[in-house]
Amino acid sequence: MTDNLDSEFSALAHQLADVAGAAAMAVFRTGFDIETKDDASPVTRADREAEAVMRERINATFPDHGILGEEHGAERSDAEFVWVLDPIDGTRAFVNGIPLFATLIALVRDGIPVLGLNAFPALNERWLATSDEPTRHWARGHDGVAVRVRACPSLASAQMCTTSPDMFDTADSNRYAHLKAAVQDTRFGTDAWAYSMVSSGHTDMVAESGMQPYDYLSHAVIVAGAGGTITDWNGQPLSIHSDGSVLASGDATVHAAALATLKTD
Fold first, then answer.
1. Are the C-beta atoms of residues 153 and 178 closer than 8 Å to each other?
2. Are 90 and 192 in contact (CB under 8 A)?
3. Low-confidence residues of the chain, pLDDT below 70?
4. Would you say 13 and 20 are in contact if contact means Cβ atoms under 8 Å apart?
5. How far apart are the first and last CA of the chain?
6. Distance between CA atoms of 128 and 119, rounded to whole angstroms?
């Protein structure tokens, strides 16, 4: 991306986070209906409304860009640039009044993520990075401060996060069990927050699988932009065509050790 395009895309990503956050917060901790999708995950009108307002803004700003969203599907998916949207990542947190839900926004160019933004509207915090600019963190009291992952002496001393132990199929569950046994401690229930914490140097690793592009593409740019390593469980870079397994680490040596552990039979 050129500097001008990079600036325009980042500005739009912030606008998308603003409008999606406003839609989500208008519903958060109010009385609302909860539906169940075909995959047994919950969805609310806030999910759909937040994505709808983002799609409207993208179409008004870059009408030749594609869009892939969790709630409203794909349009112009063969475009050079495609925005990948998860309006409320962590809907289970949202429906339980837990403020760790996020709006995840990624921009891919020919399938490769080049921009990622993780916004947490209930906490008024967000992280953004591009392939040309490092990861920055916005919160009360500081505006766009660069963040960095932390070093970790060994896999055995690593702190790991995973959204849920129930997210794995049988094969991945066996692989994950080896990794969980190899680290010092594991925290569940973190959703997208964990990837931001790796990027800001507050935890060491995230391991998950069964994910969709809108679940992981923003993290790919944010973790890398903070000096971390993020791949699938086979060590391959993440793209819109990845298999849905994700390993994110602050320390490259520990990441390599974790990948070796995941290959254990």
1. no
2. yes
3. 1-5, 36-43, 265
4. no
5. 42
6. 8
In tens, the pLDDT along 86-144 reads: 999 998 898 899 999 999 999 999 999 999 999 999 999 999 999 999 999 999 888 89
Amino acid (1-letter code) at residue 37: K
Largest CA distance in the chain: 50
User: Scanning the structure block, which residue is given the tokens 């490769």?
Assistant: 112
Identify the CA nearest to 249 among candidates 133, 262, 240, 175: 262
Cβ-Cβ contacts under 8 Å for 19 (sequence gap 6 or more): 50, 53, 54, 57
Say how far apart CA 142 and CA 147 lie, in whole Å: 12
- Cα distances from 222 to residues 23, 90, 134, 241, in angstroms, run 24, 18, 8, 18
Q: Which domains does the chain have, with CATH numbers?
A: 3-146 (3.30.540.10), 155-262 (3.40.190.80)
The residue behind tokens 């069990």 is 177
